[in-house]
Design brief:
Structural class: mainly alpha
Number of strands: 3
Radius of gyration: 21 Å
Number of helices: 7
Order of helices and strands: HHEEEHHHHH
Helix content: over 70%
Shape: elongated
C-alpha cells in the first residue's frame, strides 16, 4: 500500500514538473528572442534598479549555464545566466528585475527572505542526513533516531513552502521597479508577466512535490513518530526518492 502511494505521488510530481519545465522553456524561448523597448541588457536592468534604490553593495556578474540566475544574500551578488546577462531581451529584463527584487528584499530586511536564508543550511543537513538517519535508526532499533530523521527530512521539504512568498514578492517588486523606471511598454509588460509567471510555477511545482513527499513520509513513518521510546521496533524502509 505504501509503495502504491509513493508511486502515485512520484508520478504526479514528475508529470507536473515536466509540464512546468516545458512551459518555462517555451516562454523563455519566445521572449528571449524579443528585444525590449528600452534596449537594455539584463545586467543594465539590474544595475538601474539597484541604483534607483540606493543599493551599492550588491555586485552583478555572469553565470555559466541556462536559467540558473539567482541572488546570493550572503555574498550580496546577483548572478545572471548567459542568456540574460548581456542580452537586451524581454526575458532578460524580467529575470534581472526579479533578482534585483531579491536584493531589495535583503536591503529592507524582508522577513521571509531572512528566515529562508537562515534555515537553508539547516534544511540542507536535514535533506542530506534525514532519511539515512531514519533507516540507520530502524536497523539499530532506535525509535528516537528514526523520529529525528523523518522529522528533519520532512522539515527540509517544508522549507519549499517558505520559498513561495519570497519569490512572489520579488516578482511583484520587479514589475513595480520596471514601471517606476519606465523601462517597458505594454508589449514588454505582457512578456515580463508571462516570464515571471512561468518561473514562479517552477517553485509551485517544487512545493507541490514536497507536499506530496511530506504526506508520504507522514503515512509511512506515523507508527515511528507516534511510538514510545523502548517499544518494539518496526523496520523503516522508505524507497529512494527520485
Amino acid at each position: 500500500m505504501s509503495m502504491t502511494i509513493f508511486y502515485i505521488i512520484a508520478g504526479a510530481a514528475f508529470l507536473f514538473s515536466q509540464a512546468v519545465r516545458r512551459k518555462l522553456t517555451s516562454t523563455f524561448s519566445r521572449w528571449g528572442d524579443a528585444p525590449n523597448r528600452a534596449n537594455i541588457t539584463g545586467v543594465e536592468t539590474a544595475q538601474a534598479i539597484l541604483n534607483a534604490n540606493g543599493i551599492g553593495r550588491v555586485q552583478i556578474g555572469p553565470s555559466r549555464g541556462k536559467l540558473n540566475d539567482h541572488y546570493n544574500p550572503r555574498e550580496k551578488t546577483i548572478q545572471l545566466s548567459e542568456l540574460n546577462y548581456g542580452v537586451p531581451s524581454v526575458a532578460a529584463m524580467a529575470v534581472a528585475a526579479h533578482e534585483s527584487g531579491h536584493a531589495i528584499q535583503d536591503e529592507v530586511d524582508y522577513l521571509p527572505l531572512e528566515l529562508r536564508t537562515f534555515l537553508v543550511p539547516v534544511a540542507s543537513v536535514g535533506a542530506k542526513y534525514g532519511l539515512p538517519a531514519a533507516i540507520f535508526g530502524s536497523f539499530l532499533g532506535l525509535p528516537l533516531l528514526v523520529q529525528a530523521g523523518v522529522l528533519s527530512y520532512a522539515g527540509a521539504l517544508l522549507l519549499q513552502f517558505l520559498t513561495l512568498p519570497v519569490e512572489f514578492n520579488a516578482s511583484k517588486r520587479a514589475l513595480r521597479q520596471l514601471e517606476k523606471l519606465q523601462l517597458m511598454d505594454e508589449k514588454d509588460r505582457q512578456g515580463v508577466q508571462e516570464v515571471l509567471r512561468a518561473a514562479a510555477m517552477t517553485y509551485v511545482a517544487g512545493a507541490a512535490s514536497s507536499a506530496g513527499y511530506v504526506i508520504y513520509l507522514a503515512i509511512l513513518g506515523s507508527r515511528w513518530i507516534l511510538r514510545k521510546p523502548g517499544s518494539a521496533t518496526i523496520p523503516f524502509k522508505p524507497p529512494k526518492l527520485p
